[in-house]
Amino acid sequence: MPHRLTAPDPVALLALVPELVGFVPHDSLVLVALCGDVSRGTFRVNLPTGDADPGLFAATLVGLVCRVPGADTILPIVYADAPAAHRAFAPLFSGLRRAASAAGFRVLDGLFVAADGWGGEGRQPRPAQELEEALRLRRLDPDAAPVAPAPHEEAALPRVERAQVVATAEAFARLRSEGEPPDPLWFARYSATWAPDEAGPVQAALAASMLSRPWARDVVLITWAWGSEAGLRALRFEERHRRGAPTADGSVVQAMSGSRVLGRPSATRIRHGIRLLRQVAARMPSPERAPALAALAWLSWALGRSSVAWAYVGQARASDPQHRFAELVEIMLDRGMLPEWAFDDPARVGR
Q1: Residue 258: is its pLDDT beyond 50?
Q2: What is the pTM of this model?
Q3: Domains in the chain, ordered, with CATH?
Q4: Beta bridge partners of 120
Q5: Angstrom distance (rounded) from CA 95 to CA 44
Q6: Nearest of 256, 318, 309, 311 to residue 290 by alpha carbon
Q7: Pairing of β 111-114 and β 73-80
Q8: In whole angstroms, what is the distance from residue 113 CA to residue 129 CA?
Q9: Which of helix, strand or coil describes residue 322?
């Protein structure tokens, strides 16, 4: 939701950033999109590599801010884990300023946080201890918003006993040998009633079997995100596609690509799916985890959590470098794509 930035000085402002991002950034560029002194959205991306086109990089980020309702000002903040000379950030700030100015945005003086200090654009760094103390005091404030672990830590799968993995693998092999899976629409409805932490080997194997078939996976994800009516449309689309018949209804593909064509998805159902699939992925043998991990990446992306989605994509690609759905999600992330509903009025987010 909107967050009024009432920090009296830069160090107090920097102490608020982890709450805006959702976690403590590392080696990142953070852009806070503002309307006056009210934050309307926050973007975090990895710092550009040496071979990145600085103009294209800046234009892409400003293009995202252009989609934030009411935003008129940008605050850029650089986070560098290594010691860094403050002047090293000048080209990045300059590129953002040019791109933002061309788009009609006001740009506040940039801030930076590095291993050897923090400071403002064009200024000498101040001691890192000042910021560390401000962050510590902010975490003691009862009104402070929660801060999640770093994305790679949040995406780490829960630990399960080896016996659970073996039992799940055996159940998965039996299900695969039976040929076609059950109706994916039925499964999506049925699995929505499960308690994720209580999913056993058979339930995990059934979910993994569904996700290992692209046509069934899409029906499940659409149903979880948009409900049974949308799931039925997805099932009819997939059935026609598998028969080679014309597929006039393109809403399924558009929705999976982030279009608002089916409306805003249910954040509650998506979060339930994430909790369930984390258990499923953890119970599958490593070589068979890619379908569940790729689905976790898409669900995280659908919540606007691209950093966590990147972490799941990395795990999926490590499990199966050729997994097509993981590759598709990776392409969307690499292009800076976000779902259209991520840019809705912040007061509506999470409905």
Answers
A1: yes
A2: 0.86
A3: 3-148 (3.40.140), 153-348 (no CATH)
A4: 111
A5: 17
A6: 318
A7: parallel
A8: 11
A9: coil
Which of 75, 69, 100, 57 shows the shortest CA–CA distance to 20? Answer: 75
Distance CA 269, CA 261 (A): 18
Render pLDDT for 291-335 as a digit per residue (tens, 0 to 9): 999 999 999 999 999 999 999 999 999 999 999 999 999 999 988
Q: Which of 244, 213, 249, 245 is nearest to 234 (CA)?
A: 249
Give the pair of three-digit tokens for residue 68: 């934030």
DSSP readout, 16-41?
A: HHHHHHSS---SEEEEEEEETTEEEE
Contact 204/157 with Cβ under 8 angstroms? no
Query: DSSP of 214-274, one letter per residue?
Result: HHHHHHHHHHHHH-HHHHHHHHHHHHHHHHT------HHHHHHTT-GGG----HHHHHHHH
